[in-house]
Amino acid sequence: xxxARLTKEQFDELHAxxxxxxATQAIDKAEWDSIKENRPEVxxxxxxxxxxxxxxGVLSRAEFLEHFSRNHIFLFQCFDTHVQSIVLKxxxxxxxxxxxxxLQWLSDNMFTDNIEMKVGKKVFTEDRNASIFELIQQGSFLxxxxxxxxxxxxxxx
Length: 157
Prior knowledge:
The protein is an alpha+beta fold. Helix content is 50%, strand content 21%.
């Protein structure tokens, strides 16, 4: 397995897609029930293959990621060969970016000495999608990129 198995909730959400996936392999509901009952290792393999297919599609389309922690915000824009990053760090220890108040404080203090901002670029040394998946495993989530774009526009002007 290249990525990670989808959760039960994710499989529930993708029920129709999973049924289509099984149908492409000429597996109907009765046969799937039989496989689960009599050959659970084959069922596990099918779940893993489907999970990887879903992850591959999601990761291939991924453009922006965000990761919030107490004192840091990591913003990423993913390209074919590299990832651009903007890292914001609160230099006031009691600020917590995981709260509404912390985000308001960020808005009020964005371009002051209370925020350290670093911009970076990292070339993918391995498979692009595997690199993006690693960021997700570390706590990043897919985003619309609005915050990245706003900050990047200000930085570039």
